[in-house]
Amino acid sequence: MDIDGVLNPFYARQNPELQEQGFTFLQKGKEGFFLNPQMHIKWFNKIGEHVTFIWGSNWGEESNLVLELLSIDQTWLHIPLVFEETYTGTWKLPSIREWVNTHTTTEDKIVWVDDELQADAFLWGNQNPQYLLIQPQKEVGLTEKDFEKIFKFII
């Protein structure tokens, strides 16, 4: 699960429609995110019994600030992301692929939610029916429709 562009839509402060849907600015220390607490908590609670959430965000260990801001009393693991300057395509793919290959089984269902997926990520994901890739629009973030697609895939 990525954060920026997924849970924290870009330009949300300038989008009254998102604010009407319940997105609000939440801050801890100097870090802040535009989140929809009611919606995000509902989603995480609904699917949480069936999945292990893993952060795939540039925020690294600090990704769990999102959970603190949502008053969710847990932490999620994060995938250490390595930027390879020579790699062209989805910059997170090598790190995600390696993590999946070393930490999951062939029976595990994998859902990767990120706003920065390119053709190489979809090519990788489409090679395995146990994988689902969701690419929200970065200005809107993860939607109810996206979440329902994830929920149906998992359950």
What composes the largest sheet?
2 strands, antiparallel
Return the average pLDDT rounded to an integer.
95
What is the beta-strand fraction? 5-15%
| Structural class determined from secondary elements | alpha/beta
Strand order of the largest sheet: 1-2
Topology:
Elements lengths: L15 H6 L2 E5 L2 E5 L1 H12 L5 E2 L9 H5 L7 E2 L14 H11 L6 E4 L5 H8 L4 E4 L9 H11 L1
Q: What would a concise description of this structure say?
A:
The chain is of the alpha/beta class and 155 residues long. It has six helices and six strands; from the N terminus they run H-E-E-H-E-H-E-H-E-H-E-H. Helix content is 34%, strand content 14%.
List the keywords.
globular, 14% strand, two-stranded antiparallel ribbon, alpha/beta, single chain, 155 residues, two-stranded parallel sheet, 34% helix, 6 helices
Q: Any overview of this molecule?
A:
- The chain has one domain.
- The longest helix is centred in the N-terminal third of the chain and has 12 residues, at 37-48.
- The strands form three sheets. A two-stranded antiparallel ribbon has the order 1-2. It has a two-stranded parallel sheet with strand order 3-4.
- It is globular, with a radius of gyration of 15 Å.
- Helix content is 34%, strand content 14%.
- It has helices at 16-21, 37-48, 65-69, 93-103, 119-126, 144-154, and strands at 24-28, 31-35, 54-55, 77-78, 110-113, 131-134.
- The chain contains six helices and six strands, in the order αββαβαβαβαβα.
- By secondary structure, the chain is an alpha/beta fold.
- Strand 1 (24-28) and strand 2 form a beta hairpin.
